[in-house]
Each structure stands twice: as C-alpha cells, then as structure tokens.
Amino acid sequence: MPKRVDHEHRRQQIAAAVRRIAADRGLEGVSLNEVAAEAGISKGFVQHYFASRDDMLRYATTTLRGALEERIVARSGDGVRVRDLLIALLPLDEAARDDALVANAFLVRALKDPEIACHFRTGHRLLRDTVAALLAAARADGDLVPTVDPATEAVLLLALVSGLADAVLLGYQSGDEAIALIDLHLSRITATRRNPR
Amino acid sequence: MPKRVDHEHRRQQIAAAVRRIAADRGLEGVSLNEVAAEAGISKGFVQHYFASRDDMLRYATTTLRGALEERIVARSGDGVRVRDLLIALLPLDEAARDDALVANAFLVRALKDPEIACHFRTGHRLLRDTVAALLAAARADGDLVPTVDPATEAVLLLALVSGLADAVLLGYQSGDEAIALIDLHLSRITATRRNPR
Questions:
Q1: Longest dimension (CA), chain A
Q2: CA B129 – CA A10 distance, rounded (Å)
Q3: Among 3.90.550.10, 1.10.357.10, 3.40.190.10, 3.40.720.10, what is the CATH number of B61-194?
Q4: Structural domain boundaries of chain B?
Q5: Residues of chain B positioned with their CB less than 8 A from the CB of A166
Q6: Where in the numbering of this chain does the HTH tetR-type domain appear (chains A, B) (predicted)?
Q7: What CA–CA distance (Å, rounded) separates B11 from B59?
Q8: Looking at the complex, does the CB of residue B32 fall below 8 Å from at least one CB of chain A?
Q9: Is the dihedral of CA A28, A30, A32, A38 positive or negative?
Q10: Is residue B142 classed exposed, middle or buried when 0-12, 13-18 and 19+ CB atoms within 10 A define those classes?
C-alpha cells in the first residue's frame, strides 16, 4: 500500500464531512466522533490532520468560500447577467441549499473568530465586486437607470438575496417567489422598463 | 422561605440564559452545565423545568418571538412609519444584536424541528402583516407609488432588512450604511420622490 498520503486531499475530505454535518445539524453536531464517522476514518486520523476542533472549523470555512468562488466563476462568463448570478445564490438545489445552511451554521462562530470572519468578508467582497462590475457593464450599455450607483446597488442586491435565501430555507417563500422578488427589484433599476418608450 | 416557585418565571430565567449563551457561542455552547452556570442555578433545577435539551431550546424560541413582538408593538403606535419599524429590525443596539445572533443560532435547528420552524414562521407572518398594513396605509395617503403591492413589498422589504441585519452583524456594513440602503429602497417606492412635481 502506498505510504504517501495526500495531506491536502485528506483535509478536504474531512472538511466536506464537517460541511455535511453542519448543514444537517449545525455546528453543535460537529464533534470529533461525528466527523470521523461521517468521513469514514478514525478519530486519530482526524486529529492527525487538525490540531484542534477550531482548526478544523476554520479550514472548513476556507473550503466553503472555494465552493462559492467556483459557482461565481461558473456564472461569470461572457454574457452572464446579474440576474443569473443572484439566482445562483438562492438555495434552489441541494448543493446551494447545503452551502446556505453551512454558511448560516458558521455565522455566529464568525463573529467570535477573526479568521473565520475574514473568510466571510473576503467572500462577500468578491461577490460584491462581481455584481458591481456586472451592473457597471449594464449601465454602460444603457440598460440601467443612470442614477443607479453600481457599488451601492451591488450591496443592496446582495443583502436582498441573502435575506431571500434565508426566507426560502425557512419556507417563508418558494424559490419561484424569491426569483419574482429579484425580478421586481431589477425592474426598478433597469432603464427599459422605467422608460418603456 | 416561600415554598411556592413561580414555574413560568423560572423557565423564562432559564430561557434568558439559553439566549445569552446562544448569542455568545451559538447553540453549540448550550449545554446543561453551561445553562445552569449562566442562570446561576443547579443542573438538577434546569432538568426539573425542562424534560430535555430540545424542550429547553423550543421554549427559548417562543421567548425570542415574544421579544420581537414587544419591539414591534412598541413601534406600531400611531404615526409610526414603515421606515422606523424596518430600522428597529437592524442590530443597532446590544439587545437587537443579541436577538439577531440568537435567531441566527436557531436557524439551522429550525429547519429540522417543526415546532421551532413554526415559531419562526409565526414571527415572520406577524412582521409581514404589520409592514404590509403600514404600506397599505401609506398608499391610501398617496405616499406610495400606486403600482406597489403592499403584501409583496412587505416580503421584499423584510428580506432586504434581514440580509442587511446579517451584513451589519458580520461587519460588511455599518448600521448607518444599512439605514442608507433602506432609505434608497424606500425612495424608489414612495410617490413623492418619483413624481416630484
């Protein structure tokens, strides 16, 4: 059997187990025993790769951002509109739902752990800049109400989508209703609908 | 010493301890030992008032809604505008910040526990109906763009404020920036600014 273990691969495997448990039961479910069982490895193995539970949680947050970045990049190609990106942030499929649950599970922790808070902020900044760039491009094309400031609007849109994502998770609204509300908001900042002539 | 113990009062005292711990460390910090220490009573006492940890968490959610209702009622008197109510939902002071943290701590749990989910939905419905009523009154007074539907707009506004509340908690924005974004949104649905003549 090969002696060499792919250290990073194993850490990612453990982080994936942390994410699955956090999505299912919140961080309170993330114990050394549960993570080992979920990852299908021994407790000692988990301890070999992470010095502490906090260490494991911090690493899991970095992989969370990775998933978000992948989803953004996948949606940021040519011709992608801001609407597509915003909808991609709603928990409409299993993967996005799990990501939203894990992000929520980590939120309270993020407020006490500067390292985790930093990962959250970096992820938010990336999103905000991406949305602002898409809005600026739309404005340059004359598709946006001229008074709309891309940077400000990006922050407003992301807050709206974040609130809608929680509302969908909690069953206050369906995914379709959330999309309709995004469209309602976008109709107010796009030039075509406001000046239809 | 009086033998009679005020059962409900004691349960509220324990729930307050649960909320303080949840705001500080998330639900993962809520153990029997921690709650007893925080409430300044014995473990046996806690067990006397709650059959299980789940039972205790469920009760704590009901008291959470109580705090929200009080805040709404306090802001729903004559002459209260929707803006005031929305701003009251932002974590701008210690109490509102703790409430927001506790609600976040309970969110993942709410998705697995129908009873807690029910409390969340009832609280949201109350808020939505209150905001919709304020918007309907504003529309009747000619203060709203006539095409704005109060019920739909209430859901959109609450999603926006919920996202802004998380953003303020996480330090993405300051409280003042969040208020400015609420005002930006309200300026788009109020009649005066859109038709200034």
A1: 72
A2: 50
A3: 1.10.357.10
A4: 61-194
A5: 107, 159, 162-163, 166
A6: 8-68
A7: 8
A8: no
A9: positive
A10: exposed
